[in-house]
Design a protein that fits this description.
This protein has a single domain (about 5-170), classed as 3-Layer(aba) Sandwich (Aminopeptidase). It has helices at about 40-50, 65-70, 120-130, 150-155; strands spanning about 5-15, 30-35, 75-85, 85-95, 100-110, 135-145, 160-170. By secondary structure, the chain is of the alpha+beta class. A seven-stranded mixed beta sheet has the order 2-3-4-5-6-1-7, sandwiched between helices. It starts with 5 loop residues before the first strand and ends in a 12-residue tail after the last strand. The chain has four helices and seven strands, in the order ββααβββαβαβ. The relative contact order is 0.28.
Amino acid sequence: MKPGDVVDVTVTYLEMLESPREPVPPAPPGVEVRTLVSIPAAVYRRLYGTVGRDWHWVDRHALSDAELEAQVNDPGIEIDVLEVDGAEAGYAELDRRTAGEIRLVYFGLAPAFIGRGLGSWFLRWTVERAWSWRPRRVHLDTCTLDHPRALGNYEAVGFRRYDARVRSVTIQQPVGGSSARA
């Protein structure tokens, strides 16, 4: 795919209606999760670009710095960063603004950390974190532009599909460099 291509993308909607019974295992050596507070736009853009570049994440790039900071610093939004030996390895964004629901808005790893078993552990950690707020439901959506194992990983931790829709998407030039997939 290259910028300007129009592709049909299947968006799959998933939900979890009860907390998983299995606790999250201890973090692998050198792994920590840090919750960000008062996030500058440049920090968020770096995370978003690093994690989402290869998967065509573009929505947040359209926001001004002020709009982006207002959105990610809302008290109902939580940004958790996965760190491996002090390096940013990925992040998760939870939206708690709808009563009784938590939406996993963004989740992913930086390319250098994919394939090391960290994604599965971090996803389990993120799901446990979401359920710590005691919602009725945790939900997310993913699409066929995402990592090929994303949907299976979400289902493996207990998310269930409840809808899928096809929509046409115009591939955009990645921000901050070229993409292996573009």
